[in-house]
Amino acid sequence: MEISKQFDAPIETKLRSRVTSGFIVAVLLTVFMGFSSWRSVQLTADHADWVAHTYSVMDVLQLTVRHAIEVENSARTFAWTGQDALLTRYETARGSIAQDERELRHLTADNPSQQRRLDALEPQLRAVLQSASKIVAKSRQMRAGPGADEALEIEKLTDSVRTTIQEMHAEEMLLLSQRTQRTKTGRRWTTFIVVTGVFVGAGLLVLAGLGVNREIDVGARARAHIRTLNAELEQRVVQRTAALQSEITVRNQAQAALQETQEGFRVLVDGVKEYAIYMLDPEGRVISWNAGAARIKGYRSEEILGQDFSRFYTPEDVEAGEPARELRESLSKGRFEDEGWRVRKDGSAFWANVVITPMYDDRGNHRGFSKIARDISERKRAEEVLAGQAEELAHSRQALEAQSLMLQSVLDSMAEGLAAADEQGKFLIWNRAAENIMGYGPTDLATQEWSKHYGTYLPDGITPFPTEQLPLVRAIHGEVTSSEIFVRNPKITGGAWIEVRGSPLRDKEGVNRGGVVAFRDITQRKADEREIQKLNDELEHRVVERTAQLETANKELEAFSYSVSHDLRAPLRHIGGFSKLLMEEFGTSLNPVAQRHLERIQAGTQKMGLLIDELLNLARVGRQALNLQPTGLNSIVAEVIAILQPESEGRQVEWDISELPAVECDPILIKQVFQNLLSNALKFTRPCIGADGSARVGMPAAASHAVIEVSHREENGQPVFMVRDNGVGFSMKYVDKLFGVFQRLHSTDEFEGTGIGLVTVQRIVHKHGGRVWAEGEPDKGATFYFTLGVGKQAESKSNQAKAGGQS
Amino acid sequence: MNVGKLDILLVEDNQDDMDLALHALKQGKLANNIVVVRDGEEALDFLFCRGAFAQRSFEHPPKLVLLDLKLPKVDGMEVLKQVKSDPRTKTIPIVIMTSSKEERDLVAGYNLGANSYIQKPVDFDQFRETVKSIGLYWLVINQPVPVRVMKEVPKAELISR
């Protein structure tokens, strides 16, 4: 009901006020229109009256003129004719004029200007009448027609009457047209009002119809709504009724259950073993006792029921009145809870948690207390242990803090930047060096923003370092990396090179927990590297230049040696040839001294030929490229011995050749080496011939029995070859001179030679990347050792030499 | 000079070397029919029967040419090249006798078709022996290409050369 009232009130009020105002407007409009119509009709009627009035005035005026003319005519005619009948007309006309006069006065009473004209007209009429009556009287008296004067006078008088009446008539005509106009206007106005009224009325009716229609709709809707509400209400009533019914059922069931529960509850309480649950009467005597109480306190129920509960307290507490105090407090506050020592039946104490609650019956009478006690000695002990542990924890935490402080200072004192982040990219470590190197501290930004934030770039210094490639990001993903990064940001405007090593952080189980990077500023190193590179380039350039120079020199040398080989040899041949011819053809005619001179010339030319050959050989070794191939040395040695056979002819020479390995070398040049060394050995084991041609005194006995040994041994994984003889040997004082060009340790008288052989050996060995040296002792023989930078070593060196030569 | 019985053409610019060579040949009894020319151009003229030697005929080539390499005007290698690349002369045995023992000269000489390459020994005895051996070999032991074969070479080709 409330709802529908609230719902209806505004609509009704609105409707009612609208209907009322519409009604008022309609009434007012109707009244106005009625009044207007009535007024308009009235006015129209008035105007019509006035028109009629004007017409009657005009009629009277015309009558008056006619009567005046009748008077004149009848008077004049009577005067002329003397007929009495005319007198009658005359009299009638006179009487009519008087009447006309009165009528006119009456009719034009509302019009002052007509009255004034009437005032003028009346004398004129009277003048006409007088003139006529004078004519009549005269004619009666004299029986004669009127004189011309008189006739003229009356005519004039009549004309003036006519003129005045015409004026009056004109006035009335004017009035007539005005009034006719007004009548027309009034009629139009009336028509307008009536038509307008009809339309306005029709409009109002339409509006009223629409309004009523709408209100009917609203009313219908409202009624539908009310019907819905009613249906709902009914539904709810049905529901509520059902609910109430089920509630009642439940309550009944609950009642039953409660009774059951109470029983169950009692059994439950009795059965609880962890809690001592018992009741006291208001005086503190035990009135119920459960199994828990029996277990905790040690009393059986039959021996404790009816006993005062103060026996559960320590004697000190009892003395202090504690039991009674607790009951009082429980009563006053509704609940008492405490922890404290209690005593068992056997006198032992335990730490108990006790709750005492007063009990009231339904009428509010105090019926006693419930008491729940729990043995929490274990818990108390555990708490004590826990407190101890907490203290310990606090200690270790302090230690940990100290440690982490130490760690921080260690991290901060490091020159290397160190940063670590967890798997979400949250920074865990960012030491001082890291901040110095990167310019910024750790950031909270997402990993995707790091590269931009810290300004990291690829080694080209322009391309931003791809974030997913950043060492720390890769470390978080479990990768171990090492990279170089260029850093440039507002803090490090000049830019810096850093070397970063990243590795994942793993916990004990080996699961990834983030990543750590260590980095250092290598800007200086980079600069140094660049400097070194520059120097290297310069050096390289100089090497190329120098190589070119050397090649030019080499070419010149080649040309020189060619020229030596050809041009020096020719004159030598001529000297030798012609001296020989001289000796052959004229020898017999020459004295022995001249012959001897010719022989010396011969010997000199031969020696010079040898020198030239060996020098050329040496030069050739220097400029020829190595032609390396695996070579069996034994066969080479055998070949050389065969070549040297003529030199050892007639001598007792023992060749002691052991097994030699095959090595990578230039066989032609190595053959030259063995040839020179073995030739030397053969030469220096020869019995020495003194300048006088006699055998030298003190020559070792072995010299007559030459032993030449060729063998090798391994040293540092490299074969060392040696050629040993038991010849004259040499003093180690002069060992440095052995390998010098044209250096000789013996006179040519003792041992012929050019002083170029060992130099050639040395050059060949060096060309192979090897080393040559000698040991000797005067008269005890000499040993020559050499190595070849065998295998790949020799090869690579020769390749370098080739490469250098080509560039 | 008996043109028809030419044995050796010696090409040598050095008087001393020439004398020594002639001496050696004489001692070896090989100097009966020797012609000596002193430069490469003269040697070519002789071998191709032109210039001063226009009256010569290809039908009587020397049995042996001893050619030095270092020669005025046209050097020995060029002479060798022209002789050995012409069908009319390429069968003429040419022995290079020179002071040079340079490997490249040796290789170049053989590549151009030299029949022997001999370094003049400094020692005169050896020189004499060498010259004698060469002479004996080419003039006595070796069988030269028959002249008939030479004749078979078409005339047109000869003229066009």
Proper CATH architecture of chain B: 3-Layer(aba) Sandwich
On the 0-100 scale, what is the average pLDDT of chain A?
A: 83
Instruction: Specify the biggest β-sheet of chain B.
Output: 5 strands, parallel
What name is given to the CATH topology of chain B?
Answer: Rossmann fold
Using only C-alpha atoms, the radius of gyration of chain B works out to 15 Å
Helical stretch count of chain A? 18
Any idea what the shape of chain A is?
A: elongated
Q: Provide the helix percentage of chain B.
A: 40-55%
Number of helices of chain B: 7
Classification by helices and strands of chain B: alpha/beta
Taking all residues together, what is the mean pLDDT of chain B?
A: 82
Q: Give the total of beta strands of chain B.
A: 5
What is the succession of H and E elements of chain B? Answer: EHEHEHEHEHHH
Give the distance, in angstroms, between the N- and C-terminal Cα atoms of chain A: 116 Å
Describe this structure in words.
The complex is a heterodimer of chains A (807) and B (161). By secondary structure, chain A is an alpha+beta fold. Chain A has helices at 2-81, 84-107, 112-142, 148-271, 291-297, 301-304, 315-319, 322-333, 377-413, 432-438, 447-454, 471-476, 523-586, 592-623, 633-648, 667-684, 757-767, 791-806, and strands at residues 275-280, 286-289, 336-343, 349-360, 366-375, 417-422, 427-430, 456-457, 481-489, 492-506, 512-521, 629-632, 652-657, 662-665, 705-715, 718-725, 772-777, 781-787. Chain A has five domains: 2-224; 272-375, Beta-Lactamase; 414-518, Beta-Lactamase, CATH 3.30.450; 522-623; 626-806, Heat Shock Protein 90, CATH 3.30.565.10. In chain A, the strands form four sheets. In chain A, strands 7-6-11-10-9-8 form a six-stranded antiparallel sheet. In chain A, a hairpin with a 5-residue loop joins strand 10 and strand 11. Chain A is elongated. With 161 residues, chain B is an alpha/beta fold. Chain B has a single domain (3-160), classed as Rossmann fold (3-Layer(aba) Sandwich), CATH 3.40.50.2300. Chain B is globular. At the A-B interface, helix 13 and helix 14 of A face helix 1 and helix 5 of B.
